[in-house]
Amino acid sequence: MAAEQTAAQKLLGDFAPELVRLTDDVLFGEVWASEGLSQRDRSLVTVATLVALYRGDQLAFHLPLALQNGVTKEELVEAITHIAFYAGWPNAMSAITQLKGIVEGAESADAN
């Protein structure tokens, strides 16, 4: 049975194999696996950085991951609201809209 593909493998497959390898082996295999911060804290830091840099495409992956890693919806809302004052209102509004869609999508899936 073949191993399940990672998100990077699904997205980029054979198109950018070295970037996939670095993503899987270095970023998630070493950096995210380091014991210096918990997965939860890494997610919160990553989401904050992505919001501040207006990287909505990456938030689509990292917001659900943050929830999975134990960051609560309330903590994400609070963090994004706080970031609005330092990184800009449009950044925060975009991120909060994405988070709302993710949370509401998960809630409706749970209800079914």
Automatic annotation (TrEMBL):
Transmembrane segments: none annotated. Pfam families: CMD. It comes from the Bacteria. Residues 17-98 form the Carboxymuconolactone decarboxylase-like domain. This is Carboxymuconolactone decarboxylase family protein. It comes from Streptomyces aureus.
